[in-house]
Fold this protein.
Amino acid sequence: MKAKDMFPKLAANVVSPWRSTEWAERKGLLEVVAFFASGVAGGAWLVSLYFYESGLLISLLIGLIVGGGGHLLVLGRPLRFWRMIVRPQSSWVSRGLIGIGIFSLAGILYLIPLYFSGMPWTASTPFGNAMLVLSVVGAIWMFTYSGFAFSFARGIASWNTPVLPLLHIVCGLRGGSGLLLLIISISGSTVFEKLQIANFWAVVASAILVGVYLAWMNGSGINTKRSALIMIYGKESVAFYLGVVAVGMVIPLVWGAIGFTAPLSLVASGTIGAATVIGNFFIHYSVARSGIYLPFVSQTQRLRLSKEVI
Amino acid sequence: MRVGMVIDLKKCIGCRTCVTVCKAANFLPPGIEWANLLEQEFGKYPKVTRVIMPLLCMHCDDPPCVKACPTGASTKRLEDGIVTIDSTKCVGCGYCMIACPYGARYLHTRRMEYFPGQGLTPFEKFGEHKHPTGVVEKCDFCLSRVKEGLKPACVDACMVQARYFGDFDDPDSEVYQLIYKRGGYQIHPELDTNPSVYYLP
């Protein structure tokens, strides 16, 4: 492994933007997985409450194990994880983990009477209702906080936008509906037409927001434009066109549109669901990989600071 | 009191004495440079120019890293404005590294040796306890030296005396006068971090 691969900061040039690698490479990718899983789990919890209660358990497990676990695996000192909830007044990671905790605890307590009889509370008792409300709040927070966590980075111009939190929220709902479609198709139950319609429009909304995000990046300055070019033309374009566009949008939209004219089979619904979820991941992945920091010196400053080499 | 540094880019020759002395004074492990120096060349022979930019933690007045830290390990000292990291509280999440626009923070992931396969040298063993693995670390303006009234090691060691250290809140201090008279500027002032490191053109 070359030195510049091990220590990317040492390879940063003075006037060139430099890549954000903490969430884009190696162990940092687990953070992207955690954000993705938290968002999908939160969305799936909400959608399951409305359409298909059997999806609740899987949503909870994904949120707790993949989402929460992903955040813990990234830590250099995971046994100190409990310290991460002490700064909600300023840290979005702290707020997010509190949300995951509320969602997990409330979700577990809500689900216990559904699977085990003889409990002192049920879903319809005041305590059960309170847990339901808390789990809904936690679920909404699960797909909301990650966008704000990204947008907090002032030095990464392409992340510092209000579009990103909105994109994460829509992706959470889209991923949740996609995951539920997949769960239903695997379980062999009847697919709800309304869920397919909801998934279709969630994908449409996310496609519009991705377009808005790219347009914003293109018009917001040279560094955001660079990020857009990395995403569309550079090394990350494969993940973007294949993962985000082809799998994440074309498949769900085309097959979803067919579903308006004729009922879709379980396999087709499951494919739409899987494609939606995969596309969700690649949206998070593409955004993380295209983040670049502002160069230390602008081109005009460079002219003033240059020294002749004799 | 708000201490800070002024770096005269006209004097800096890119010798990296500051980088080396910082490594020695703070027992830094391989791959971690609290005082970094970036160089970039432009043009073709014989008309070649070079830009040299010494970098370190900016000890911002409004540090985004302190706000981002979920454990409270990163704090800004009230007495002098130096941003420090408590390694006993840091969980190594790296969110402060994302938040820092200046790339001043390093996650010490695993123990590395300057002479791989030969074990740690006595020098490395002496300083090993100062750099626990799994946590983030950065320049602290040689806090132990500043507490004793000394200047950071890089300031004292600079061969061409391109670095100055002092109190920005004192209008009679050297750093204040240099910024005022020579037009000292910060990197990325538009980010509203108000760094405590100024550069003289």
